[in-house]
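Appendix B. Raw example, untouched.
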Amino acid sequence: MKNIYIPSLNVLFIFFFKSGSSLYTAFIENWLKWLKIDYDYSELTIVESKNPKVYLMVRNPLERVVTSFYWTKTFDIKSKEDKFPVDDFCSFINGLEDEINITGDNHLLPQTWNMVKGLKRRERQSYELTYEDFSNFDYRTFYPNLNISIVQLESFQKNFAALLGMSTQMMFYPYFQKFDSNIVDSVYYNKTFGQFSELNTNMDAYQKLYVVFLYNFIESAFKLNTHHNNLTGSMIEILRKQPDTTDILIKANKLVDKECKYFGYNNKQHLNKHKFGII
């Protein structure tokens, strides 16, 4: 986990490994530096008593399981002939519950693992979270006193792509005359950068437009980085189309089912519940 806390606004951003943490940490930090707003890296346990507004920057847990496999179990996959090692993935999922119990690698642990563990340790300080306890955790008790806003990165990126698409249609006369206001007043801005209301206070249209440019620049730079292999989506499609591997994908989904529901993801549709019988 990475954290950015803004004392003057009492806002805490929480980013999770393998969930766009590098990209979105870089973006938020640069946005704050441009606004000349001081921030630090305080953890939730340090600032919780101040009842901050908390933004959880999350990713679909099922897709993250596949990405975690690539990150922790493959090496230089792009240079290999077989970029979709299905058998290795099946073995990974069959042993994942046991591995979660012994690993300390936050690239592999579920996104809310350490936050759930923190709650459990209030009851018993020496408590060590197990996968069984995590899978049975009641998210209705997940920091109920905090104002938590869940930001799905897939939704953010989808709306940002729509924002860019709209902007390309406004490059020509007479639309470019109101380019700035039309962009930042759009529903797509509100569903991306506008949802961080505390950072948008007192910003005019040109300043908001700069935020759009800033994110686009940072995201473009990250896409050029070999750190990311972008194979997760294709791997899921391969798994769901092969009858002998659909059960593995269903098992992977069940391993993070409660976290999926808390974040607002519906993988029943993602996995085609009618074909594969997911309930």
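End of appendix B.
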